[in-house]
């Protein structure tokens, strides 16, 4: 292993490992420093996303959703399953196997792309030198023409509710319970709170979410957020807005949570407490003072539109820089930076960033909300379509939710798409593609959608934006031409 590289990436999550692979594809001699030690005590690539984030949470969401459908909906379809059981340790073991296979897959991709994986903790020194401290404490420095910092984020902890080994946990801890807790409290009704709250609710836990803000999912289109709140409440997620958590006391294997709301102060006892109040950029010890890399006032590494820091040849991508904390956002930044280092014209279209909450129904959106259009004074028109009117949704027995699209009246372009419903995460992709290609609503309306599919709901919403939806009454029916 030589000590000089064209590119050294610090951090092997979805931002860093993708940057490393793209740099290697472009012919650059590349190394990636990664310190992660997994549950089995082995070094692992893949970062938060593959080890304790996107992938394991979705493995549990899929398994518990099937369990929930089998418990509640099969009988309606004439399917009897006898005495349905849930083997939680097996469900967790399946999740762990998926994680091991995918993280092992990244290690294989590194080998085939001839990327050196420097196992241990990386620190950027002056002049693009990177010091690596391996897991035995040995230090070695490497030099690089270019350094990409991709050290990600970690959960925010609350002083009032310190984490314990297995009762007060962060999101990673809540992916490993081997038995169904009777009562779970989640602090934060954000994306993690709703996804992990759903997982344990479906297994039979009573789940209470304590949310500080008065508004539910304020970043989501108002109509969609309202529908989501109503649906989640029906599923038994007890979402309490406008609450302030004061403290937690662990005793006799349970946890007392003290919180206040409009009705005063309360203490409730739970078996588990999940703290899910957001994540913070991880920069602890990553950039030395002599590297001269600047952080912004929120502790994120300061970068320009192309992820360049204030130091020439040093870049930062993913959760450690501004923008949404999403795996795909970090990966696209990784590709952009690798391509720009290679002299190409990489770019990221931050205006067309898909967002998904993987509850059931899923919530998914891209582009502007109505509220944002109003603020910006954009003249827009709404087209919407409920899944209750979709033949395919009816056949699936999954008719909750709707599609809503926003059309720019001035040029017929799609401003945004907002969905809550079955497979919303997959349906969103066609709106993302339409926006990326600058398609008009007429283009979507003109596109043939297979019947019967859920995607017809987007087609109908596009027709509806123009007052010509077929399978639902339009808001404005044009006057009849007289004969
Ligand atoms: P990370 O994935 O955090 O990776 C950073 C890596 O850098 C880590 O492996 C870390 O060990 C390493 N590192 C840090 N410092 C050093 C150092 N000094 N030396 C060496 N290595 C270092 N996003 C989605 O888009 N979709 C989802 O469905 C989704 N679900 C999620 C579910 C959960 C429960 C959580 C917690 C997050 C989820 N996210 C999801 C968010 C997503 O995981 C992050 O946005 C994404 O992982 C960020 O990628 P990253 O590469 O920037 O950082
Ligand atoms: P979040 O920002 O989505 O939600 C945190 C919630 O906690 C907010 O609603 C906030 O108001 C609330 N909160 C903060 N402090 C509180 C307090 N003291 N008491 C009560 N409530 C409080 O953050 P998250 O759910 O922790 O997720 C972290 C990041 O991970 C997000 O930015 C998200 O982008 C990413 N993530 C994405 C996905 C996905 O794409 N499906 C899934 C999980 C996580």
Detailed description of the structure:
This protein is of the alpha/beta class and 483 residues long. The chain is 30% helix and 25% strand. The protein is globular and about 75 Å long. The termini are far apart. It binds flavin-adenine dinucleotide and nicotinamide-adenine-dinucleotide. Nicotinamide-adenine-dinucleotide binds next to α5 and β18.
Rg (CA only): 24 Å
The outline comes out as globular
Residue runs with pLDDT of under 50 for 5 or more positions: none
Bound molecules: flavin-adenine dinucleotide, nicotinamide-adenine-dinucleotide
| Average of pLDDT | 96
Q: Determine the number of helices (DSSP H or I, runs of at least 4 residues).
A: 12
> How many strand units?
22
Report how far the terminal alpha carbons are from each other.
Answer: 84 Å
Strand content: 15-25%
Summarize the biggest pleated sheet.
Answer: 7 strands, mixed
Helix content: 25-40%
Structural class: alpha/beta
Helix-strand blueprint:
Layout: E1 4-10, H1 16-25, E2 30-34, H2 47-52, H3 54-72, H4 88-112, E3 116-119, E4 121-124, E5 129-133, E6 139-149, E7 153-155, E8 168-169, E9 183-187, H5 191-203, E10 206-210, H6 222-234, E11 237-240, E12 244-251, E13 254-261, E14 264-270, E15 272-275, E16 279-281, E17 314-316, H7 327-341, E18 355-357, E19 362-367, H8 370-376, E20 380-386, H9 391-396, E21 402-408, E22 414-421, H10 424-436, H11 441-446, H12 456-465
Parallel strand pairs: 1-2, 1-6, 2-3, 6-17, 8-15, 9-10, 9-15, 10-11
Antiparallel strand pairs: 4-5, 5-6, 7-16, 12-13, 13-14, 18-19, 19-22, 20-21, 21-22
The chain binds flavin-adenine dinucleotide (FAD) and nicotinamide-adenine-dinucleotide.
């Amino acid at each position: 292993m030589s000590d000089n590289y064209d590119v050294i990436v610090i951090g092997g999550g979805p931002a860093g490992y993708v940057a490393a692979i793209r740099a290697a594809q472009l012919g650059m001699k590349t190394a990636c420093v990664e310190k992660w030690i997994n549950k089995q005590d082995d070094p692992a690539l893949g970062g938060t996303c593959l080890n304790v984030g996107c992938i394991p949470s979705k493995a549990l969401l899929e398994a518990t959703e099937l369990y929930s459908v089998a418990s509640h909906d099969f009988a309606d379809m004439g399917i009897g399953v006898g005495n349905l059981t849930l083997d939680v340790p097996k469900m967790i073991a399946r999740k762990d196997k998926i994680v091991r296979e995918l993280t092992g897959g990244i290690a294989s991709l590194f080998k085939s792309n001839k990327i050196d994986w420097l196992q241990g903790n990386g620190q950027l020194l002056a002049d693009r030198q990177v010091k690596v401290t391996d897991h035995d404490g040995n230090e070695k420095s490497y030099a690089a023409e270019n350094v990409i910092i991709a050290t990600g984020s970690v959960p925010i902890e609350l002083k009032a509710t310190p984490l314990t080994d297995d009762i007060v946990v962060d999101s990673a801890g809540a992916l490993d319970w081997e038995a169904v807790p009777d009562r779970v409290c989640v602090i934060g009704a954000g994306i993690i709170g709703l996804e992990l709250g759903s997982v344990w609710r479906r297994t039979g836990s009573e789940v209470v979410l304590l949310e500080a803000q008065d508004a539910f999912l304020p970043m989501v289109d108002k109509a969609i957020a309202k529908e989501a709140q109503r649906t989640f409440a029906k599923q038994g997620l007890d979402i309490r807005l406008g609450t302030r958590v004061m403290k937690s006391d662990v005793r006799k294997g349970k946890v007392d949570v003290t919180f206040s709301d409009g009705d005063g102060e309360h203490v409730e006892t739970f078996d588990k407490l999940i703290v899910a109040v957001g994540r913070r950029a991880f920069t602890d010890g990553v950039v030395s003072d002599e590297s001269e890399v600047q952080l912004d006032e929120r502790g994120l590494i300061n970068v320009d539109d192309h992820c360049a820091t204030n130091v020439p040849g040093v870049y930062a991508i993913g959760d450690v820089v501004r923008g949404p904390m999403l795996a795909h956002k970090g990966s696209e930044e990784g590709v952009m930076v690798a391509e720009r280092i290679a002299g190409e014209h990489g770019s990221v279209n931050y205006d067309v960033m898909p967002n998904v909450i993987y509850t059931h129904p899923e919530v998914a959106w891209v582009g502007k909300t109505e509220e944002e259009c109003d603020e910006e004074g954009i003249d827009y028109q709404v087209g919407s379509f409920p899944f209750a009117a979709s033949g395919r949704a009816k056949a699936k027995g999954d008719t909750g939710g709707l599609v809503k699209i926003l059309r720019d009246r001035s040029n017929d372009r799609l401003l945004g798409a907002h969905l809550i419903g079955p497979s919303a995460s997959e349906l969103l992709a066609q709106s993302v593609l339409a926006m990326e290609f600058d398609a008009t609503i007429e283009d979507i309306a003109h596109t043939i959608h297979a019947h019967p599919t859920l995607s017809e709901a987007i087609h109908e919403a596009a027709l509806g934006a123009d007052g010509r939806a077929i399978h639902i009454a339009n808001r404005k029916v044009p006057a009849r031409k007289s004969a």
